[in-house]
Design a protein that fits this description.
Distance between the termini: 21 Å
Helix content: 25-40%
Protein name: ADP-ribosyl cyclase/cyclic ADP-ribose hydrolase
Structural class: alpha/beta
Low-confidence stretches: 1-8, 410-414, 990-1059
EC number: 3.2.2.6
GO molecular function: ADP binding; DNA binding; NAD+ nucleosidase activity, cyclic ADP-ribose generating; zinc ion binding
Catalytic activity: NAD(+) + H2O = ADP-D-ribose + nicotinamide + H(+)
Shape: globular
Strand content: 15-25%
Number of helices: 30
Strand order of the largest sheet: 24-25-26-27-29-31-32-38-35-40-33
Organism: Arabidopsis thaliana x Arabidopsis arenosa
Length: about 1050
Amino acid sequence: MASSSTHVRRYHVFPSFHGPDVRRTFLSHLQHHFASKAITVFKDQEIKRGQMIGPELKQAIRESRVSIVVLSKKYASSSWCLDELVEILKCREACGKIVMTIFYEIDPSHVRKQIGDFGRAFRETCFSKTKKVRLKWSKALTDVANIAGEHSLRWEDEAKMIEKIAADVSNKLNATPSKDFDGMVGMEAHLRKVNAYLRLECDEVKMIGIQGPAGIGKTTIARALFNQLSANFQLKCFIENLKGSYGSDVIDDYGSKLCLQNQLLSKILNQKDMRIHHLGAIKEWLQDQRVFIVLDDVDDLEQLDTLAKEPSWFGLGSRIVVTTKDRKILKAHWVNDIYHVGYPSEEEALEILCLSAFQKSSPWDGFEELAKKITNLCGSLPLGLRVVGSSLRGESRHEWERQLSKLETSLDRKIEDVLRVGYDKLSMNDQSLFLYIAFFFNNEAVDHVTTMLADSNLDFRNGLKTLADKSLVHISTIGWIQMHRLLQQLGRQVVHEQSNDPGKRLFLVEAKEIRDVLEKETGTGSVVGISFDMSKISEFSISGRAFEGMRNLRFLRIYGRYFSKDVTLGISEDMEYLPRLKLLHWDSYPRKRLPPTFRPECLIELRMQFSKLEKLWGGIQPLPNLKMINLGYSKMLKEIPNLSKATNLEALTLTSCTSLVELPSSIWNLHKLKKLRMSDCKKLRVIPIKINLASFDEVDKSSCSQFRSSPGVSMNIKYLDVGNTKMEEVHPSIVERLPRLEWLRLGGRNVKRITHVPESVRHLDLSNSGIESIPDCVTGLPQLESLFVYKCRQLVSLQGLPPSLKYIDASNCGSLERVCFSFNDLIRHLMFRNCFNLDEGARRVILQQRGYNNVWLPGRQVPAEFTHKAKGNSIIIPVVLDRAGNFSAFSGFKACLVLPPTKKYALLVITCRIRSKAGVIITELKWNSVNYFQYQTTHLFICGGKLVRETPKVDATAREIMFEFSCRDNHKILECGVRILSEEEESSSGNKVGYFETGGSSTDHYTDGEEGYEPKAVQVSQYENINNTCCWSWFKKLWSGEEDDDKEEAEKTSIMILR
């Protein structure tokens, strides 16, 4: 499940446009860029247009986070467009909706004043309209023309304009601050002082400095500040480690200055392949923009002159923050507002050390004086305190005293000495591991690095634990290795000292050094790893034998030019030699194939995205170690080699390999293959049928336009998703081939009938399909536990369901009228959200379900069977206690809440606290809505449970208890009702099995307490498709008992984005 820190909306973007002007040209390209950034766009192709916009479009506008108005020459010729525009601006005024404008081949003044061709089209549309309508439309056009936007006539390159628009939208959508810096010692005080210098209330451009010694926390403070404030700026960027990127020895070079400006503009405008040609580019692009920029670790005045020479380069209200060790640089640049990061107080420094050494804020007994002395010797430097503290964690007093003696002679208040305290204590193997991570495996998964270093004679698992214990690396909650940048610098300094000749060092990461080594072919057998960021250098070419001297090279990573038309690293002839690599990661590889002499038997990971490869190699190669192949977006790839020897292959990614026609039959002999991704392989026609893979657990054939039949998959597969393809039914043979299938997703608009489902299926998703009733093959499934028929718009009847069911989700089934199933205590969740056509009998069947199940359905009032009712979220009811002042062991209750509509998608988490009159909590219960959902009208939520889980003593004089309900994120509760179950009801609720069948007219939409309920006010059919896969995956995790950690998921996602 995605992070729950914010509610989910159905769409990211709602576009308003005149179709004939832009749909097949500009808009299609823009939507392609949106798709590449995972931005969901409302699409109106299937909406029947009339004289007025319908509720579906209005709902979509309200549900979208950003509305984009594309104003073209004939936009005003459509009354539909003009009504859309009025609705968009209403949302902007009412709830702060983000509205962006694009003036496509039209002057904004023509829109504002309704003149020229645009005005003539507008007047024709207004003919026969009332004066009120004409004025409403005219005002909307004037207002929208006053919203600053992109003017296509000002752009020479429309593609770049589209990229900028997509980047701007992405930035607006990614403005959610995190809590990464909460609880850091002294951070709150730092931020308060820095904010005082920024004076955000002023419109002037301000530049401030954050100055202090290395390791004091300048970067951490700047990141926390950026995290806190960046959402307030449309354009923002954090340029880190300027010293590490461009040293002072080359900053006077004109090309280096261009690189610096290019780096800033590429990042702030989110244009990866942007190129500039003069040093006035920053002013040219940003002088009218309100920006927030952090320049981190500046160590040369020329860097400031290059990136932020004067305030006039930036728009009013801009803020520039510079971190540096050198106060003179700031003064020379006329930066007068400087926040000096002082050392923490003795108490704060001791707390930092103790948190690392003792994992508490104070020392252990007997260590007080030692801790204070080490704090002083570290000079209260936060990074030094953490490193030294962790190196002493769990050590004896004797070891503390020994380290104290060492620190007294070697600290010398220099950061390198502080860092080396932790490094020098490592064994030789652990030091080697430290260097591997510093150079090559920072921000990598632990399991991945374990495999990569399997034959390196390093005790990786124990070594990694040692590094983590000493705070030289951090292992995230999802198992990723993270090393502080300054510690990486220490490792690089250690390797740099190995030789003055880069070709004789263990690792190479500096782009210019790598270029020189490859161009001059000076690499030697000492080199084990190369990590080459091609974005940091200009074009150059190497020979086919550039790697010949590096016979021990095992890790080759060449990256940074995904979408550039210009290949930075060219090869003057066919590649003749590559070493026996474990990792071959070469983005935008420029040749048609790998060297014929290449021996891939050591390969563990092969990544060659966006390459010009037509094939990898010929024949059958030994590939015993290969685990992952990613050839995504290699649009010239025509052939996949025979992979029969890749016996450990786990993942094969061929996304958007648009020239690929067939897959080799050998892949079906790969018994460890788990994931096969073939989405958007438009020419793929041949997929082998012979299958028997025990490990197969993921098949992605989405957007494979040739795919219409049942997939060939392993008879051992347990999870299969072929939703939203052109497959129209399940072939009977699939039932025979999938005897172990437990999870099956078949939903999609092309699915009209289902005649065969394997009897082993326990969780079935038919969402978005065109079925009208539950197929016979489903009603007979003996083990079916969960059934999704979400948004089956033609579904009228839900009956004949298996008694084994525990979960039903029929939400957004707009035509559903009749419900028929047995009462049992197995059903945990009954989801009938936004089902507005349920007849009276159906509502009664759902509401009278026995047991402590959770029920969701539309409704405005608490039904009459709930004998105690109150407005709001709490109710006090009388209760009878026995003579000892105890509740009966059989005491139970059912509750009903009336919840208001939600403006956006929400995961409702409801808590019930039962209190005594004195306020003592007797018991606490929680329920949730299982997945994110948007409730169009008021809904009823019915739940229940035991009044007590044990038998507590309650004041014998008490005759009342309070039920207090609350909903996460302050979601309002309109009304609540409670019914205390009698002993007879309680004892029978889990044992009786009743049966109701409903039918007949759907004109009476009410039940007890629901007089006047009018469900047809909102139609479910007005909702466009939401990606049900996310809900499906989350439910799978929930059902299997796996923990769902939003923080871990977010952390993993952020790391993947950085990669």
